[in-house]
Amino acid sequence: MNFTCNRTDLQKCIMNAERVTNKNSSLPILNSVLLATNNNTLIIRATNLEVGVEFQIPAEIKTEGSIAVSGSLISNILISIPDEEKINISVINNVCKITTKNKNITVKGFIPDDFPTIPIINDGESFTIQPQNLIHGIKSVLMSAAISDIKPEISSVYIYQKEKSLVFVATDSFRLAEKKINYTGESISHGVIIPIKNIIEIVKVFEIIEENILFKITKTQISCTSKSVYITSRVIQGIYPDYEQILPKNNTTEVVILKQDLINTLKLSTLFSDKFNKIQFIVEPKDKKCLITTKNSDIGETESNLTVTMSGEPIEILFNGKHLFDCLNIINQDSVIIQFNGFNKPAVIRGLGDQSFTYLTMPLTK
Amino acid sequence: MTNNTQLWEKTLFELERELSRANFSTWFKNTSILKQDDGVVIVGVPNEFVKDWLQNKFHKTILRSLRNLSENVRGVEYTVCKTETQKPDQGVIEKAIHTQTTELPLVNLYTNKEDGLNPRYTFDDFIIGSFNELSFAASQAILKKVGTNVYNPLFIYGNTGLGKTHLIQAIGNEVKKHYPNKRVFYTTSEKFSVDYINSVGQGSKAMAIFKNKYRHYDLLIMDDIQFLSNKEKTQEELFHIFNELYHNNKQIIFSSDKHPNYIPALEARLKSRFSAGMIVDIQEPEYESRLAILRAKAKHQKFFPPEEIIEYLASSVQGNIRELEGLLNGIICQSELKNRNLTLSEIKPFIKNTSKPKKLLAVKDIVKVICEFYNIEESFIYEKTRRKEILKPRQIAMFILREDFNISYPTIGQKLGGRDHTTVMHSCEKVKIDIKNDLSLMQEVDQIRAMF
């Protein structure tokens, strides 16, 4: 194998691919990336057996062939030679020779035949979506997904079509985020549950891409294809809870508040909250009073009076301040609306006048 | 089952010798034999990556090892299957962190959108007693031969809260487990008719989709069929779907709170079709079954009350399993609050409060309602007339006073114009027998009862 290509192109792809490699595998080939030539393109492939990615970049190819090399090693090499423009790689007997204008590097490779294949999806449903829409949808809900693997179906993001929107949902069973993105493409009959670790990779890969993404879904696997990238992930073969049933339809107390005010208050309050990030809301519409208080017996306590418009019944309720804070970064509007539903019922937070994003969080009990 | 596990363990043992340790542990972790079908071994793998790799790289090795161990193996296929990752220990740890937050009530919402089944309903926690053993036996027969058995359609009826939905959903879940290729669908008659009405509104294309949707299932389960009464067009549609499925030997299961013959305004042709297969009823559970149910439910909730409490509950609460469950939940809640087991004397008032209030109505008021229903002067009831239009309401009044309000025969006779207690006894017997033969009388009595 012998080819020449642009260093920046190669570096960008290798760094993305390297992230996917499995660093702790007992099988050394899994922490390597595969370089292979095909006509006038170079194929870069990596997988951790959960996600598989494949990039294609243009290259000048003298002889065809393939090699697997350690992902972290080659990406570090490329980072360390930032001044070089062109890079030539040749392979003889599984030894990879990297030549630039001023540098000669030799790297030991692995037999490419041992490199795992990446599943290609041929059947199943397909639809196209713009990368910025996909990423916006996923990022809006990502923080609510559960981190642990105990319940795989909720340490995931659930994507499904509902009427004229694509809905993204994530929950860790204490809070839930739902984002709707306008969608008018092909109809999708079944939703898909993608593990959170895998969807983060998908987001990172497509952040640098502008072409539309073609999604393919089967019961066990999804794939996303654009002009130069192919990424495939395992999906969770489970049932996503029918969360719509817990979205409250009405509310007992409603508060509209400037987002920046709330952010500042929360920042202050969380300094004094305990390990559960406990903060207390006291809302008294009759007296036109809305307070956020925190108390920590070791540090001290705060009480903030907020300027809000409010209606409904008075309420005193505890929340996890971090949960509230998380969603404020997602809301674009200047004002947020918080709807309480009484003791021990989830509260709903939305941007004022924006129905596309809904955030649900459970109060703390004591 | 064990046969498959053993075979795979032996195969893995052989493979382990041939492959490098790293290769073996990477590619054969979480694999198993799902089933053997005419010499074709179906191996379950955790994901597509492993499937591809086993197929392309290790297929020959795996096949050879399997052949060495079992002569009749002809081929190997790989499918991706769900891996069970149950780590209860970590679950406890996580719970401990979050003790102060209550979870969103998502637990009961894991219904599968594709087939409408709730995986919570299984036969594992289905308690069989004499009250439901017939329906259970019928469901087991269905599981052996889906579609092509004499129990098609299966019609299960019984009062509310006796486990009909549990049973039919469990059949669906079990069929799904044993026959992954069969398409199962569970719906309620209400959803079915909404679906139908929607498709009517959206033109012929939507109608065609609706018609096709229900026709391609191998097992159709429809719950609460009694709500179809008076919905003529929905009934007609169900009739056509029924015929289509039945002729193609697809299994159909219905449930209802009444025998099909007593569902009002149900078309005769549907009734006769429901009766074509097997009609079974679920009775109210008797004492021993109630005891078993309570024990199972308590165990399920990790609550272990003293035996005497369970026995007391089982003996004092009759009928409905759902009410039993409710009472048990109440007791669990109370004892969690007090952080100790409740005593029998604490439970007694609790049961008294939650059990239905006893109907206390004056005989006169009851008679008045019945007279209004039949549109006759109240005074006629107390007179000595034997006119037919008076006789019938009077007999029904006696019947209801006796059956529902537990008033003694002599008192009834005395209150209704000074009649002999034998007259009352005769009337009650007569109505009891007539109800069995006369559908319209049955409906009338039901309607009157609903007014109290």
UniProtKB/TrEMBL annotation, chain A:
Molecular function in Gene Ontology: 3'-5' exonuclease activity; DNA binding; DNA-directed DNA polymerase activity
Subcellular location(s) per record: Cytoplasm
Domain DNA polymerase III beta sliding clamp C-terminal: 245-364
Any GO BP annotation: DNA strand elongation involved in DNA replication
Main location class: cytoplasm
Domain DNA polymerase III beta sliding clamp central: 129-242
Subunit structure: Forms a ring-shaped head-to-tail homodimer around DNA.
Protein name: Beta sliding clamp
Lineage, highest ranks first: Bacteria, Candidatus Nomuraibacteriota
Automatic annotation (TrEMBL), chain B:
Stretches the record annotates as Domain I, interacts with DnaA modulators: 1-85
Location of the AAA+ ATPase domain: 150-284
Region feature (Domain IV, binds dsDNA): 336-452
Sorted UniProt keywords: ATP-binding, Cytoplasm, DNA replication, DNA-binding, Lipid-binding, Nucleotide-binding
Signal peptide: none
Domain Chromosomal replication initiator DnaA C-terminal residue range list: 362-431
Keyword Amino-acid biosynthesis: no
Localisation: Cytoplasm
A GO-annotated cellular component: plasma membrane
Pfam families in the record: Bac_DnaA, Bac_DnaA_C, DnaA_N
Domain of life: Bacteria
Residues involved in ATP binding: G161, G163, K164, T165
GO-annotated molecular function: ATP binding; DNA replication origin binding; lipid binding
Gene Ontology BP term (one): DNA replication initiation
Domain notes: Domain I is involved in oligomerization and binding regulators, domain II is flexibile and of varying length in different bacteria, domain III forms the AAA+ region, while domain IV binds dsDNA.
Family: Belongs to the DnaA family.
Assembly and binders: Oligomerizes as a right-handed, spiral filament on DNA at oriC.
Function summary: Plays an essential role in the initiation and regulation of chromosomal replication. ATP-DnaA binds to the origin of replication (oriC) to initiate formation of the DNA replication initiation complex once per cell cycle. Binds the DnaA box (a 9 base pair repeat at the origin) and separates the double-stranded (ds)DNA. Forms a right-handed helical filament on oriC DNA; dsDNA binds to the exterior of the filament while single-stranded (ss)DNA is stabiized in the filament's interior.
Protein name stated in the entry: Chromosomal replication initiator protein DnaA
Gene that this sequence comes from: dnaA
